[in-house]
Design brief:
Elements: H1 2-43, H2 61-72, H3 77-102, H4 105-108, H5 115-129, H6 134-159, H7 166-188, H8 196-221, H9 229-251, H10 255-264, H11 267-293, H12 299-319, H13 321-342, H14 349-353
Helix pairs in contact: 1-3, 2-3, 3-5, 3-6, 3-7, 5-6, 6-7, 8-9, 8-13, 11-12, 12-13
């Protein structure tokens, strides 16, 4: 027994030692790759968000989540389309990481190397699992989407300095591209399987996000002399007119009443809404107290907001998925709009949001 015990202990030590060596080599490789990418980014004059790493793993998040959902639930063909296209974006992201670790040319020049190969990955999935024509999937869907992703990824890194790490830029642009693809697919294909409630929610979300996109575009086009409250009011007015026209034409003249009834004429949704409102009040009080004390937010404060956000999403997912979908879409638009106002250099709004 003693010999067997000693043998097992010796084997365990060797196993642990070899495992630790493999982990150390893997970690060293990732760190060297990350450092090389940072040097090439600096060589290209790109300033990413100042953190210790480039967050390269983030590019896997969205495709993995979509894949888990597609495996666990019976989803629509449109959802499958978005999931399969995310594989092409992931493959291009990996190639982009390889390219930027070798040279900064992929950032400096408008090169689209790897787009066709990445598009082929998505096209094969569309052909195999959705029954789409291979040439159509490749030339009409995959290549334009991956090329669009490639262009926007470079623009995000170049034109938004100190805003993203590479991984963060990848997951953000993946979301934008896939969202745009989903919108086009809903318009020009019959892949979506929705009901009246889902259509109602989608119309509101798409309208809000489109309005925010118009406002941000107009803010971006303003010259320094035009950045004032008066022009901001005109831009918001234009966005509001656009949203009202779309909602009126799609949902009818009583769209505001429909929206009110959808939320406040349903007992369960009223309770959820009140719960969310109480969490918002708590968050605002915490924020005001920290602002009044002029104390920099610490980890505890940030984690508190994470807990509040988790409570919002968990309650919505468990009790009313459609309501949390509507709230998340509108909330996303508001967050993007507030961030755009913060960066718009329009006083006193920008200073107040810093």
């Amino acid at each position: 027994m003693d010999k067997n015990s000693e043998g097992n202990q010796s084997y365990n030590k060797r196993y642990i030692s070899s495992t630790q060596k493999i982990e150390a080599k893997y970690i060293n490789f990732i760190m060297l790759l990350d450092d090389q990418i940072t040097r090439n980014l600096n060589s290209a004059g790109v300033e990413t968000r100042p953190v210790k790493t480039n967050g390269l793993w983030c590019c896997f998040l969205l495709p993995v989540v979509l894949t888990f959902y597609i495996l666990l639930y019976n989803v629509s063909p449109l959802y499958k389309l978005v999931t399969y296209m995310s594989y092409g974006l992931l493959f291009y992201s990996i190639l982009f990481i390889v390219f930027i670790s070798i040279s900064s040319v992929v950032i400096k020049e408008s090169t689209y190397g790897g787009c066709v190969a990445s598009s082929l990955v998505s096209a094969l999935f569309l052909y195999s699992f959705l029954g789409q024509d291979l040439i159509f999937s490749l030339m009409v869907v995959s290549v334009p989407v991956v090329s669009w992703y490639s262009y926007m990824l470079r623009q995000a890194l170049i034109r938004c300095p100190r805003t993203f790490t590479i991984g963060e830029a990848m997951i953000v642009i993946q979301g934008i591209v896939l969202f745009g693809l989903m919108g086009l697919a809903k318009l020009f294909s019959n892949l979506d399987e929705t009901n009246e409630e889902t259509d109602f929610i989608n119309v509101i979300i798409y309208t809000v996000l489109s309005m925010v996109g118009i406002i941000i575009t107009l803010l971006y086009l303003l010259t320094d002399e035009q950045r004032n409250i008066q022009n901001l009011a005109k831009i918001f007015g234009a966005g509001a007119v656009f949203a009202l026209i779309i909602l009126h034409s799609v949902l009818g003249a009583s769209f505001m009443l429909k929206f009110w009834n959808y939320i406040f004429m349903h007992e369960n949704r009223v309770q959820i809404f009140c719960f969310w409102l109480s969490l918002v009040i708590i968050a605002v009080l915490v924020l005001l107290s920290r602002t009044k004390l002029a104390v920099k937010a610490n980890t505890v404060t940030r984690k508190s907001f994470h807990i509040l956000a988790s409570l919002v999403f968990m309650s919505g997912i468990l009790l009313d998925v459609n309501l949390i979908t509507l709230a998340a879409g509108i909330g996303l638009g508001l967050l993007v709009l507030i961030e755009a106002l913060r960066k718009s250099r329009i006083e006193p709004i920008s200073s107040a949001l810093q």
